[in-house]
Design goal:
The protein is α/β, with parallel strands linked by helices. It has 14 helices and 18 strands. The protein folds into 2 domains: about 85-290, 3-Layer(aba) Sandwich (Rossmann fold); about 310-419, 3-Layer(aba) Sandwich (Rossmann fold). The protein is globular and about 65 Å long.
Length: about 425
């Protein structure tokens, strides 16, 4: 693996908007950043891959994007460490999403449902139970293998217009296409939109659910910004890009998942009416001033304040002899620890439930990753909740920690200690 901050094979920073072509410039930098899910062994440390994490928001079309994203092959590979089935809450959410989506489409013999970024097949399992044909598209071989073990047909590929054409030719066009927390990962947004248009049936529907820019700005949840999230999507640019490829945005429905998401319902142009939710969300974005550069200047200032407050809090606790751990070795945790400069001297270890991460080191700051069983056997005095978007699920699971006097540290929307 190449060395350095900009090793060979890295993507060069873009200088024009990926949606409309307007000139782009970063409104801040999070500095030198590793791959968010690249957990490593000590032997791999000298060859760790870094890039500069710089977000920008297009002043013409409003698309929030990174200037640089590492090559997709470095992100989604045969050891991708996230499995959808690891969260009970997400399993439940996918069940509700599937029921709602299937109720909106025409049921016909052999109707096909395609999921882009199907991961381990958690969502498509719900579709299969409803009696539909399914096909998943997934670039990471290890999670795709788990989906196949569940009896799900999987195309091991990155999604774009070419992949969509192959899937449509092989399996037919889909009555329903679903993509959850995946479109924001793909830098070639126009090719994705063209692929969706190519893949969906003339009377079909596309359901996209992604972390929402408006929620990130409102909560100062800067940890949503990392190499996988080349975009933080919002309604205005989504509507514009999809319309260029013959898809009409018919609904925009806020969701609580991932700390605040938006569900976009799309249909081939002329096949469905536009619901009131679209204008409502566009008006909300205008009120929040998501198109105003001053909004992002204020966001940068809040990020810097949060960093300062978290550093100060941990430094004080360490000075008092307190043991501090992290909880959940998430992609988000990589942004927080590297932006705030928090290493093993600040955080003893990070507990995580994914066996693939155990015994490895966190990206960039090299904090040891241990199992949640280790966390329970010898609990710290304080635990930083890196998976704050799953707080209720984690608090219920770790009642013994708080019962024994342990306290949680949170940083979204503010740095705070909670029981």
């Amino acid at each position: 693996m190449p060395d350095g901050n900009h090793p060979s094979g890295s993507a060069s920073p873009v200088r024009s908007c990926r949606a409309c072509g307007a000139s782009l410039s970063a409104f801040m930098t999070f500095g030198r950043m590793p791959m968010a899910n690249a957990f490593l062994t000590p032997e791999q440390m000298p060859h760790e891959y870094f890039f500069e994490l710089q977000p920008a928001c297009c002043e013409r079309c409003g698309l929030f994007q990174l200037l640089e994203q590492p090559p997709a092959e470095r992100i989604f590979h045969g050891e991708y460490p996230f499995f959808s089935s690891s969260s009970v809450r997400m399993q439940q959410h996918f069940g509700v999403l599937v029921a709602d989506a299937l109720a909106r489409i025409s049921r016909r013999p052999g109707a096909l449902v395609v999921e882009i970024g199907c991961n381990d097949g958690t969502l498509l399992a719900h579709v299969q139970q409803a009696g539909y044909r399914t096909v998943g598209i997934e670039p990471s071989e290890n999670v795709a293998a788990v989906a196949r073990e569940r009896g799900i047909e999987v195309v091991n590929a990155f999604f774009d217009e070419a992949t969509a054409a192959v899937v449509a030719e092989t399996y037919g066009r889909a009555q329903l296409v679903v993509a959850t927390n995946v479109i924001c990962h793909v830098a070639t947004l126009h090719s994705v939109a063209a692929g969706l248009s190519r893949l969906v049936a003339p009377d079909g529907m596309v359901v996209i659910e992604e972390p929402y820019l408006g929620d990130m700005i409102a909560k100062t949840s800067y940890d949503q910004i990392y190499n996988e999230h080349v975009f933080m999507l919002s309604v205005r640019p989504m509507q514009r890009v999809c319309a260029e490829h013959g898809l009409t945005l018919t609904e925009a429905v806020p969701q609580s998942t991932h700390g605040g998401s938006m569900r976009y319902l799309l249909a081939p142009a002329g096949s469905a009416t536009i619901g009131a939710s679209v204008d409502r969300q566009l008006a909300s974005e205008r009120a929040q001033r998501l198109d105003d550069p001053r909004t992002y200047d204020a966001f940068r200032a809040r990020c810097e304040r949060s960093r300062s407050e978290l550093r100060k809090l941990l430094s004080g606790l360490r000075a008092d002899g307190k043991r501090i751990a992290g909880y959940a070795a998430t992609s988000k945790s990589a942004t927080v620890t590297n932006y705030c400069g928090l290493g093993p001297d600040d955080i003893d270890f990070i507990a995580d439930s994914t066996p693939l991460k155990h015994g490895k080191l966190s990206p960039g700051m090299h904090i040891p990753i241990r199992s949640t069983d280790d966390f329970r056997r010898r609990p710290p005095d304080f635990a930083i909740l890196f998976a704050w978007n799953h707080a209720s699920e984690i608090f219920a699971k770790e009642r013994a920690f708080t019962a024994g006097g342990g306290r949680w540290i949170t940083y979204v929307p503010d740095v705070a200690i909670t029981d």
